[in-house]
């Protein structure tokens, strides 16, 4: 069965007319100054709903309907295009893509020779006209036939040189957008100017490209996707641009000094089969979350000029190209409330409470707000319509308020004056506010985490027992556990001889845990269980970790220049606790690891997962059912592999348990091998702890 894309269902002519007006108004607002009353996904659903209604009720079609029109019919330009700048038709899955490709080949009467596969950049299409190698004019797409002159933006667009390598007269077409860093800079400039921010990179780019009277300049980025000769030009270059394959044209564009996606992780390729094209679609989709710029799909087109010419055009789109749309990662919803929580390390973090919204296949109710400085920078208020962003496995975050949708009923977000957990003072000297008591504020949470199954694994230490030990003053942190005596424990209520002996034995056993678990128990900010394993394997000993500066810490896979100094500062703060653990005789070495100052041992040969990146998802069954996710990840690493939390083109294997969900779907798209927990257990049986078999 062919996939059916979601759309807004319309009940009658009245609902249809209202939908048409909303679509027209939204398109007009977006193309005028980059604002809109609805987000892109809602607009797409609305237009698909209008189209579906018109197909069932052709007698009710309104002349103002956005269907079949470039830019929804909202834009009228005064600069004619030499060749129409048309929109693309959309498909929403592999089956629809196959149906579309089959239609192209039926029209040609033969198989397509080659497919070009490129990312669909989330920006605005423009035409850049060069005369004798110098950039002379910039024109928006407009209604496809004519666009708006935005030549005032020349000099502010990265990737669009004012001079080409060759002194040629040519028209380049491409997408203007804002990268993530450019968007942050633009929001900061607007915040400083009028106290507001842009809603999202796409609307920021749209408004910036047209703005002529702003007192500040925002930088944009250009990615070229095509080139056309000047009308009537018969030079060798003009003939080439008319006859070359699309892939060769893009090579020429890049050689002129114009930015293309060739140097990015989502570079375009030429596929000889649709299966090969589908594989590249999966790779681009998987890379989406890590890109510094937005994409909302993948463009598939006939690569050869002859195939394009034979396939032809419809009134609004080429028949030889289509956009494979990806699920929305950005929506507009309401910010209902902000709650404040103190974490186990003492960090005070705000959390956004949202009006529920479907985003990237799941319902989002909460999102991160990072810190007070972030709230201030973005100018957020309670009751705001806000843009919420999510990509891949990343926790949803509030991007910015949609200022033009404010009603006047919005209210300032209350900022806590004391720690929301203990009521003590707040240290606000850094962006991430902390309770002045640090880890002591949430000692129960900190110790509970440290003694958990995936860290020190001390049985018999439930939260109520930890509270009892804290209340009686026997411990202040988890290091004190290793100095408890039998007499002290027997003096507590509900502690008999058997339970006391069992607890002391469990504490003694915890001294033998590998360094990776001890490091994880410390709860160093910016690290978790997976990062703790990497740090322990890299440095091998706690002494080596503590001696490392920020530059040395950065050598650990996944630690960047921002996180490394935090780790160093945390280790200094935790020095008394670490010293206490050393005095208690807790192990400070990672078995099998070699310190970076020594010659590394050759990796053991024959390990079943050697050099493999493995992702585990869903509920484990069979021999793995008794293991926590952390224990499964440890198992992967003992067997020579690297555990990962997200599926990408670099994933070697997916272990898919019950209710595997989106990760399994992504792996299938990418062609990543998938095994069941039972099959995986057979593969690594020698490394599964005996009690779990």
TrEMBL record:
Signal sequence, renumbered to the chain: none
Highest taxon listed in the record's lineage: Bacteria
Protein family: Belongs to the NAD-dependent DNA ligase family. LigA subfamily.
Protein name, entry field: DNA ligase
Origin species: [Actinomadura] parvosata subsp. kistnae
Required cofactor names: Mg(2+); Mn(2+)
Gene giving rise to this polypeptide: ligA
Catalytic reaction(s) noted: NAD(+) + (deoxyribonucleotide)n-3'-hydroxyl + 5'-phospho-(deoxyribonucleotide)m = (deoxyribonucleotide)n+m + AMP + beta-nicotinamide D-nucleotide
GO biological process, one term: DNA replication
Enzyme Commission (EC) number: 6.5.1.2
Enzyme's top EC category: ligase
């Amino acid at each position: 069965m062919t996939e059916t894309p979601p759309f807004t269902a319309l009940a009658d002519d009245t609902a249809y007319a209202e939908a048409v007006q909303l679509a027209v108004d939204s398109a007009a607002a977006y193309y005028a100054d980059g604002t809109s009353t609805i987000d892109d996904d809602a607009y797409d659903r609305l237009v698909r709903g209008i189209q579906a209604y018109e197909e069932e009720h052709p007698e009710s079609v309104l002349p103002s309907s956005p269907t079949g029109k470039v830019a929804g019919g909202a834009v009228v330009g005064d600069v004619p295009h030499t060749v129409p700048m048309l929109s693309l038709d959309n498909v929403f899955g592999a089956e629809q893509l196959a149906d579309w490709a089959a239609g192209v080949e039926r029209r040609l009467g033969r198989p397509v020779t080659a497919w070009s596969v490129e990312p669909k950049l989330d920006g605005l299409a423009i035409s850049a006209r060069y005369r004798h190698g110098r950039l002379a004019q910039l024109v928006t797409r407009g209604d496809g036939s004519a666009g708006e002159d935005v030549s005032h933006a020349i000099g502010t667009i990265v990737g669009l040189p004012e001079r080409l390598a060759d002194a040629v007269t040519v028209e380049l077409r491409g997408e203007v957008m804002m990268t993530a860093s450019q968007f942050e800079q633009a929001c900061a400039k607007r915040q400083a100017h009028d106290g507001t921010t842009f809603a999202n990179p796409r609307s920021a780019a749209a408004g910036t490209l047209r703005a002529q009277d702003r007192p500040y300049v925002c930088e944009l980025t250009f990615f070229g996707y095509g080139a056309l000769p000047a009308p009537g030009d018969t030079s060798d270059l003009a003939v080439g641009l008319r006859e070359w394959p699309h892939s060769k044209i893009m090579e020429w564009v890049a050689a002129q000094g114009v930015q293309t996606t060739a140097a990015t992780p989502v570079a375009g390729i030429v596929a000889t089969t649709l299966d090969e094209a589908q594989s590249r679609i999966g790779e681009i989709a998987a890379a989406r979350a890590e890109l510094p710029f937005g994409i909302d799909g993948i463009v598939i087109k006939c690569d050869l000029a002859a195939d394009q010419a034979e396939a032809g055009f419809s009134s609004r789109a080429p028949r030889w190209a289509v956009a494979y749309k990806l699920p929305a990662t950005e929506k507009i919803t309401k910010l209902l409330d902000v709650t404040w929580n103190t974490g186990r390390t003492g960090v005070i973090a705000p959390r956004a409470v949202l009006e529920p919204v479907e985003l990237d296949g799941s319902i989002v109710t909460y999102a991160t707000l990072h810190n007070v400085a972030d709230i201030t920078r973005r100018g957020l208020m309670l009751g705001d319509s806000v843009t919420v962003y999510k990509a891949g496995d990343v926790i949803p975050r509030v991007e910015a308020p949609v200022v033009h949708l404010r009603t006047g009923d919005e209210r300032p977000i209350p900022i806590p004056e004391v720690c929301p957990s203990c009521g003590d003072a707040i240290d606000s000297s850094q962006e991430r506010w902390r309770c002045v008591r640090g880890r002591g504020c949430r000692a129960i949470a900190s110790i509970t985490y440290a003694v958990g199954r995936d860290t020190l694994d001390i049985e018999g230490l439930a939260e109520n027992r930890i509270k009892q030990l804290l209340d009686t003053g026997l411990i202040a942190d988890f290091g004190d556990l290793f100095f408890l005596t039998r007499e002290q424990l027997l003096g507590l209520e509900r502690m008999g001889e058997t339970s006391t002996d069992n607890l002391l034995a469990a504490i003694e056993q915890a001294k033998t845990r590998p360094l990776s678990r001890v490091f994880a128990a410390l709860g160093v900010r910016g690290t978790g269980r997976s990062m703790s394993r990497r740090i322990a394997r890299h440095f091998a000993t706690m002494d080596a970790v503590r001696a490392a500066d920020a530059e040395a810490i950065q050598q650990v896979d996944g630690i960047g220049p921002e996180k490394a100094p935090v780790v160093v500062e945390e280790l200094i703060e935790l020095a008394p606790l670490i010293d206490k653990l050393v005095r208690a005789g807790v192990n400070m070495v990672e078995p099998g690891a070699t310190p970076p100052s020594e010659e590394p041992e050759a990796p053991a040969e024959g390990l079943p997962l050697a050099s493999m990146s493995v992702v585990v998802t869903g509920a484990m069954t069979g021999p793995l059912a008794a293991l926590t996710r952390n224990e499964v990840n440890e198992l992967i690493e003992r067997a020579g592999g690297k555990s990962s939390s997200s599926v990408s083109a670099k994933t070697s294997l997916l272990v898919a348990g019950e209710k595997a969900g989106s990760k399994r779907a992504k792996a299938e798209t990418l062609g990543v091998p998938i095994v069941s927990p039972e099959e995986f257990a057979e593969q690594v049986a020698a490394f599964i702890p005996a009690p779990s078999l």
